């Protein structure tokens, strides 16, 4: 018997991703993520770091998946926890949830596991860590094997998780894009995906960008977009600040390179940027000699130096969503030594995460920046998520017997279901829309 339990991540974007797959008397958990919106909201109003809060408090404020029933019913059967990639809405809750399944090892790519270790903040957990390179397998039992297949996304070493069972293969690709020209790492392993299509029982994949027509552009385009904006200000005596997702190592690499082409010294400031770059270095996928400042005192020293000679420096900082405690928010609120003035440049190399909290925070910070007469450039970015044609191509490539759209909420899931119907699938027959907490038997 195969049963899927949609623990979290099915009812909204960027929130509490967690799925459990039962194969007879063995259970594999896929992802353990934070509710990013709740984290930003709570830390902004309460001023308390969520990493220090216990399981019960995090559950009460809806910041982590509610695994209470899962733990009661399936807890003793959990054989492994597999993390598909390094974003906190997929891996942030490992520190709280994984110890509840202490005999289950945590499996992921080297970079992903290094990021998970960072989220532990030095805390020890009983679970064993098993790093698995993309395109590798790990045998759980005589009946279940885990395989990680290389994909592309906005963070390195993102993988499609394949669970090999006696009933067929289950593919979990919860965040991906089809980028044939990534700046870090290899393109998706199409040949292996086509092989997996033979007896692919189910596909679970994200619908974040399903309403966008066409294909999602390559990260190469983002590099050219940034170059086009920045080179207009070559040799200008202005301050330059760029903010992007801290986990986007390829984008950080591009920004460091462009800073140097402009003859400026890159300064990377913010705790999460520091953490992700440390993880990338330990995983041997990216290293830089650029100066990185994580702690507030060091950040302020770096910004004081940059403020004295703005034309010599290129500031890359946290705060792309306008998070209240981020470096960019503190700059906008005059809480750092860096003073923004007329014609200084602020570039948002990102889009706004479509949640009420993120949208409100971004609007607030942009209004404050405009009051200082800075030049703002928004959306200098390409997404890490598959668009409509990518999603159709992925379905056609894998040919799953059952399709579970996730990571987007009911409207996006319904749109994904229509794509599937256009190539022969039928809603409620082999396309299934689940919400958080729901479960379904796939194979008797």
The whole-number mean of residue pLDDT values reads 94
Most strands sheet: 7 strands, mixed
How many individual domains?
Answer: 2
The gross shape turns out to be globular
What is the radius of gyration computed over CA atoms, rounded to a whole number of angstroms? 22 Å
CATH architecture verdict of the largest domain: 4-Layer Sandwich
CATH hierarchy, class of the largest domain: Alpha Beta
The percent of residues in helical segments reads 25-40%
The tally of strands reads: 19
Structural account:
The chain is of the alpha/beta class and 444 residues long. It folds into two domains: 2-215 and 384-443, 4-Layer Sandwich (Metallo-beta-lactamase, Chain A); 219-377, 3-Layer(aba) Sandwich (Rossmann fold). 33% of the residues lie in helices and 21% in strands. It has 15 helices and 19 strands. It has helices at residues 36-46, 55-60, 68-74, 88-91, 94-97, 110-119, 190-196, 219-230, 249-261, 271-282, 296-308, 327-332, 356-371, 388-398, 410-422; strands at residues 2-8, 18-23, 26-30, 78-82, 106-108, 129-131, 136-139, 145-150, 159-165, 168-173, 200-206, 240-244, 265-269, 291-293, 313-317, 345-349, 375-377, 402-406, 439-443. The strands form three sheets. It has a seven-stranded mixed β-sheet with strand order 6-5-4-3-2-1-19. Strand 9 (159-165) and strand 10 form a beta hairpin. Helix 6 (110-119) packs across helix 10 and helix 8 (219-230) packs parallel to helix 9. The protein is globular and about 70 Å long. It starts with a strand and ends with a strand.
